[in-house]
Amino acid sequence: MNQKTKFILQRFGLMLVSLFAVITLLFVLFRLMPGDPASQLVSPRFSEADRQAILEQHGLTEPLHVQYIIYLQNVAQGNLGISFQHGSPVLPFLLNKTLNTLSITVPALLLAFTFGPFIGANFAWNRNESLDSYGTGLVLVAFAAPIFWTGMLSIMVFSFWLGWLPAAGMHSATYTEISLLDRFFSVEFLRHAILPIAIFALWRLSQPTLIMRNNMIDLIGSDFIKLKRAEGIPERSIMYRHGARNALLPLVHYMALAFGFAFGGSIILETVFSWPGVGQAMWTAVRASDYPVAQGAFTIISVAIIVLNFLVDILSVYVDPRVADTGVEA
């Protein structure tokens, strides 16, 4: 068995252990939360017999260790339970919400990772000049500004003052969904999505910009770049064709992780813009002690992050085979 195969199997084993640990931790944490989930299921007007029957139906009368075993079996089968609030299966409900979240996070991240490296490369190539000094400062301010503040500011300016864009929601109150394509590929959806996509892209722009800037600064003083200049190659060609291409590798690694962690940032974004995504569903479920939905949402987000970490490790092996040697030794 070669080093690459050993590395992949090692990382796959770590992924399985991480998934098991996260699922177990989520089960315990949600049982320690304040609030009685039975209050979401049983009306005070119900008789004791009816109350007991409903609790048994949802498995809430079983001891915790029995609930845990049942939960593991259900998760392995893709069954995340039944929502206490609306009585429907959790997995289809959350997958539908996840599509809504991806409809704003994916375009925002693509914008950030398309323009961020370009901006960072130019900052590095003009290091210590006005473009770099002021530009880097603005990027840091955009990152440091709380996303709920920039979101509310954009709503105040573009929705209330100028009246150009809707303030909240994914569609208007009178919208009736015809098909999945109609939900995401309509003028009305685009008008509602512009502000959350722009704010999220602006917030995420700083990481690829600064990573690219730092990588390019390290490369500018290298013998490789000096050799290209000695060959008489134009500066712009050196910057993009030779410098930026070599500086992009660490950014590719970070980009995959950013897609996983984007779910976490979407919670605040969806709350500000009343966007019906998985983040807002999770927040609502936590407040209502709806264990199945809250656990399911956290599980989906955790699985996405862990699996993307695994895929990044695999990608790193094929991009740079030396990773397998250091990884197996570690």
Automatic annotation (TrEMBL):
It is a multi-pass membrane protein. Keywords: Cell membrane, Membrane, Transmembrane, Transmembrane helix, Transport. Pfam families: BPD_transp_1, BPD_transp_1_N. The chain crosses the membrane at residues 12-33, 104-125, 137-164, 184-203, 251-273, 293-312. GO terms for biological process: transmembrane transport. Residues 98-316 form the ABC transmembrane type-1 domain. It comes from the Archaea. It is found in: Cell membrane. Its main location: membrane. InterPro entries: BPD_transp_1_N, MetI-like, MetI-like_sf. One of its GO terms (cellular component) is plasma membrane. PANTHER family: DIPEPTIDE TRANSPORT SYSTEM PERMEASE PROTEIN DPPB-RELATED. Belongs to the binding-protein-dependent transport system permease family. This is ABC transporter permease.
